[in-house]
Design a protein that fits this description.
- There is one protein chain.
- The protein is built from three helices and four strands, in the order αβββαβα.
- The chain is 27% helix and 13% strand.
- The protein is elongated and about 90 Å long.
- By secondary structure, the protein is α+β, with helices and mostly antiparallel strands.
- The protein has a domain of 108 residues: Ribosomal Protein S5, domain 2 (2-Layer Sandwich), CATH 3.30.230.10.
- It has a four-stranded mixed β-sheet, with helices on both faces.
């Protein structure tokens, strides 16, 4: 039924429920305030927060983040290329290796493919970080990596990073 004006709305509406689900004196008898709660309800007991150290993570200090840092590595002109990746390297005075990633949308249009390439690069870098010394390394994706070629891409990038290690003396 539709009413065009409030004058046509009946004054008598639905009757109130016998046991409304509202807090207060008119609440349902089974759910009044003193009723014990089931284990899944109510606030949880306080628990201690513990900081876990992730040994396999890549800290922010091990990443290139500023455009000037990337520019300095590109200007050093020391690079090695493979089928999927091109690696640029430059010595730094920090005493540790840092990683920068360049994965363009033109090379890998799908975000899934770009993220896959970045995961591969970070993992290979993390595994070889100690052997790289004080180097700033930029890894550029040359072409999208098919899922079937993931292992080959990892091996290629590992070989490119190994080529950086002997060049540390220069």
């Amino acid at each position: 039924m539709r009413f065009a004006h409030e004058a046509h709305i009946p004054a008598v509406g639905r009757t109130a429920k016998a046991h409304p689900w509202l807090p207060g004196p008119h609440a349902h008898a089974l759910w009044r305030r003193g009723h014990p709660r089931t284990p899944g309800e109510g606030p949880n007991p306080a628990q201690r927060l513990t900081l876990t150290v992730r040994p396999h993570s890549l800290p922010k200090a091990a990443r290139l983040r500023q455009p000037g840092e990337f520019r300095a590595v590109f200007e050093s002109r020391r690079s090695f290329a493979g089928r999927y990746f091109q690696v640029f390297a430059r010595r730094n005075g920090l005493g540790m290796a840092r990683l920068g990633l360049v994965v363009s949308r033109k090379v890998a249009p799908r975000a899934v493919d770009r993220n896959y390439a970045k995961r591969i690069a970070r993992e290979v870098f993390r595994q070889r970080r100690a052997s790289l010394g004080a180097e700033d390394i930029v890894v550029r994706l040359k072409r999208a990596i098919p899922r079937a070629e993931g292992i080959a891409a990892q091996q290629e990038l590992a070989a490119l990073m190994e080529r950086i290690a002997p060049c540390r003396a220069s």
